Structure prediction request, 167 residues.
Amino acid sequence: MAPFNLLDWVAENSGHFKPPVGNEYLYSGRDFFVMIIKGPNARNDFHQVDSEEFFIQLKGDVHVKTIEDGVVKVHRIREGEVFFIPPNVPHSPQRGPDTLGLVVERRRPEGEPEHLIFFCEKCNTLVYDKVFDCKDIVKHFAQAMEEFWADPVLSTCKKCGHRIAKP
Prediction:
């Protein structure tokens, strides 16, 4: 593999960055993978894995919601800053238009659970926690989100009846 210009790569692959997540593999290796994530995204979910994630914000700012000790915290990551997410911390990156980030994640071994979590926007009740073996995060994670939003049974809060819509 030879060195290459990252911004040229982003321009050449611009058609791949689509909501809801807006991610594309920059590198997909045996032990880890690197994604470029371009805003805007369309997310009202939380993601949780049993490993760390490393964020580098290349352009613009991103707000990452985390749930720590049952409390939602919003972390603003400015252009040029880095952010580490510890294992098993639910997080929800909110990317605005024309933003660009780089995320490094450990390749999950087969059978290690990945979580796609939705909370009710009205009463904050857990509505859905899909635990699955996500072999391809670029493809499978967005598919799981679309399946949730399309199913009124899955996406309706049992406590208050609010339906979580696709943003």
